């Protein structure tokens, strides 16, 4: 009953958002009867909701509580812990925060070939036919020398809406080197990468409204192994903003607390682990190289050759059903320090389960 009242109050607040500023501030800031409840009582009620609504779609009630008024929103932000500690995704900023160490968040990606779009969903069950909870969308844009994937919080109109823009992925012409850009600076002193490639991002054909800030967060490279085209490719990911110590026992990765308004005035700083490499343009066109810059380095887990099946195999524990060169598992590279159990733990796995359906955990 309390949750239903909260939902009705939240819908009432949507109407209040269209009222004049003075009356709106009174409603959101403390004039609301729910905001005048004793803080101890509010904390107890919201804590119980947080504990009981542990998964989607029930978890939408936790989000609804944050929309009641400012005082409730402040308390709910203190109660709700980050996915790194709880494994729960709650607010949109969760998609930019590290996941739990002891388990994988099961997600899947749907590809639409006609619109060149991709949609990321959080799995709600163990079924590969799950409807899922929408998380992110991306649209592919081709250029003469590279390809951009614009990433948005909106499922449909990916090219519009400044507040929905999250970042982008850029590949070189061959599709062997990729760079992940964040739409907001990870810390106050961050500088955008300036190159001919970054100027291309401001072309109207990419997106007329998205704020294309270039804050490089990660680099991904592919190369053929010693067997050439007959063997699996080698994949390496250099994470600029995640220290190698984060995979050690007790280690934690930096966290962005919230989205910045219009990508300005960022959240608490996340350190960028700068490398001594050349510019972004050189990375996208240059040879494969390791970046020993203190950042976490991920590499694909080496598959084994199956004599009976005559193919390279990895154990995806039932999450992948179609053989594909795109299937991979990422683990911490030995470059991060002496090999240990943490280097065997799968951090991310991706695989094909249908013509246009992929799992990503």
UniProtKB/TrEMBL annotation:
It holds the Pfam family F-box-like. Residues 34-77 form the F-box domain. Coiled coil: none annotated. Residues 95-361 form the Tubby C-terminal domain. One of its GO terms (biological process) is regulation of DNA-templated transcription. Belongs to the TUB family. This is Tubby like protein 3.
